[in-house]
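Hi, here's the filled form for the chain we discussed.

Project: internal
Contact: R.S.
Residues: 238
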Amino acid sequence: MPFSDTEVALLKSCRILEEIPPAVIEASITSHVGQQFNLAPDEIFIQAGQVEPGLYLIAHGTIELFMVDANGKEKILDFAKTGGTLAEETLFSDRPLQYSARSLTQAAVLRLPNEVVSTWITRYPSFARRLMSLVAERINYLYKDMLTFCTKKATARLVCYIVCHFDQAPKTPTGTYSLHLPIPRGKLASRLGISDSHLSRSFRELEAQGLIIPQGRGYFIPDVPALSQYVCPAGCDF
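And the returned structure, exactly as it came back:
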């Protein structure tokens, strides 16, 4: 089903497309109706192993990226949200895609074929620079993610991922922060590489210390610097 006007507007606002004229974006959306995915929760729409899968733009929703090991066990690698992209790393390499993608929530995703992206790279140098910057950010993100996995225990991994995003705690005028957490606990545990029981213990530990307070579908953090200091005494910045 073609995207709604709201979904088209959301796509136009994606950071990666800021340098592309809106009329060009809309023409590409219109001419690729077959590449517009309106997804119900739990739909796999990208399979690992694809070569030149194109560039995927998330108009809205949350997507989970996962791999399946030799024993058939899934490992969630990360979550991508509204405004994010998928498969950008394949645009500059011949390597097949290393992960599959599945909708965690209802979502709308547009696939841009490689030839469209290549045309834009040639025609709009600022888009090419933004795309390369995105890939560089992804590499830096993966490095910090790996460092966290290798050096930090469950509670610190939890805070690094859901609050500090590996390198910088959020700064607010009051030092407080409200965290929305729509990801199911089991999937979050898989993403962090820990068991469900370890994740539950980490949440209880932080609650017992008064560092997080349950609030609806998320948590209220009364003192972000104190939470950061608790799990990472050296500070958030690597």
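Let me know if anything looks off before we file it.
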